[in-house]
Amino acid sequence: MKDTTSKRIEAVTATTLIVGIDAAKDVHYARITDYRGINLCKPVKVNNTTDGFESLLQRVKKLKIKHKCDKVIIGMEPSGHYWRAMGWYFILHESKPVMVGVNPFHVKQERELNDNSPTKSDPKDALIVAHLIREGRYFDMYLPEAEYAELRILNAERQRLMKQVSRANNTIVAVVDEFFPEYDKIWGRTTCRTSRKIMKQFAFPSEILAVDKSELIAVIKKASGGTEGQKLADEIICASEVSVGVREGLKSAKLKLLRLIEELEFYEELIAVLESELETVMDTLELGDILQSIKGIGPVISAAFVGEVGNAERFDDWKQIRKLAGLNLTEKSSGYHKGKTKISKRGRPYLRYMLYMAGQSCCKHNPEMRQYYQYLRRRKNNPLCKDQATVAVGLKVMRIMFYMAKNKEKYNPEKALGDVRQQQILSLTA
């Protein structure tokens, strides 16, 4: 890979000026050092305004001339959102400083090494950022543009709405578990659409037992579109008769349940609108047709990949994307002890989640990936469990998507697995 630590260290030469910044809401702090980490001035307060940014750049320009430097590297922690406006300002500035980022986890770990104290302050963190840059512990700053920026924001919003849906689902289940715990055993998923429609009418045992069976059947048929009827009604009535659910506070609990169902449906509608917008943006990209040529990959998964990864041409190897998703393997070994191998989970959680979903989807809809999944589950040496195999398929799909995006080439089933893997699958089948 191109971005090795040694090459980053080599990029910091004797004529390099380093600016470490700790970003905040209104006032940022900057520390300016030379390539050895020596402070060239006192901590600099930087107001979050055009004048504040220009004032910092003017000071950097003077120090650059004074110390005969020909290169400026500006670095900060790309966490939260306070850094974005400043980052864009510096990237677009005519002086063209090199913009880099440092890992917030590295800043936290380095804090005590700096002065043997856990004390945290903005000037101290800015200096730590500068020192990490000097040591080569930084990465190239990437700020998505055009459709990539649109997809990044839409993906983040979808992730937020999915959390709201999950929260509403869990709360509905908690209410039902308290007042009608037997109801959960009837359904594969308590909050499915049919179940929700039934709960709006009859949610608790006392409501169900108070109505005629024919009325309950009519509600069930209407809720399920005619696919369910008397059998489901019998199950619900039997569960109601032996229920051990709480019998007090039912009126308020029903109001709470109705509000939660309304909230869940509201967020589901928002997600549907947002996914339609994702599809519209992907339709404007040539990359959308290329990625969606894989069976099992639709607009949502392809949009997540493009939005989180950005321009694939900035990567040299698929392993860089694997690391970006936090799916690179780690182990803790010492002496004769060999630890278990696990994924690091140090990366973009949404990308990692969507690659897992890509693995699940392709196992269902893509013949080549289904064969690969079965091979991983049944091979003689080191067979994988269900989740491990799904993650491995997701990684395989990610690798294919990376090369398709890089080479602008549509999916080819004959190239998907490669000759060696196909031989292994055939030998296992035989």
| Count of discrete alpha- or pi-helical segments spanning 4 or more residues | 19
Tell me the CATH superfamily of the largest domain.
Answer: YqgF/RNase H-like domain
* Main beta sheet strand tally, sense and closure: 6 strands, mixed
Instruction: Count the E strands.
Output: 8
How far apart are the termini? 39 Å
Helix content: 55-70%
Task: Give the helices and strands as they follow along the chain.
Answer: HEEEHEHEHHEHHHHHHHHHEEHHHHH
* Overall tally of structural domains: 3
Amount of beta strand: 5-15%
- Mean model confidence by pLDDT: 92
Biggest sheet, spatial arrangement of strands: 3-2-1-4-5-6
Architecture of the largest domain, according to CATH?
Answer: 2-Layer Sandwich
Structural class: alpha/beta
Explain the overall architecture:
This protein is α/β, with parallel strands linked by helices and 430 residues long. It contains 19 helices and eight strands. It has helices spanning 5-11, 50-66, 82-92, 104-115, 122-134, 146-179, 193-201, 205-209, 213-224, 230-241, 250-283, 286-291, 299-309, 318-324, 349-365, 367-378, 386-407, 413-416, 418-429, and strands spanning 16-22, 27-33, 44-47, 71-76, 98-101, 139-140, 329-330, 342-343. Strands 3-2-1-4-5-6 form a six-stranded mixed sheet. The protein has a two-stranded antiparallel sheet with strand order 7-8. Strand 1 and strand 2 (27-33) form a beta hairpin. The protein starts with a helix and ends with a helix.
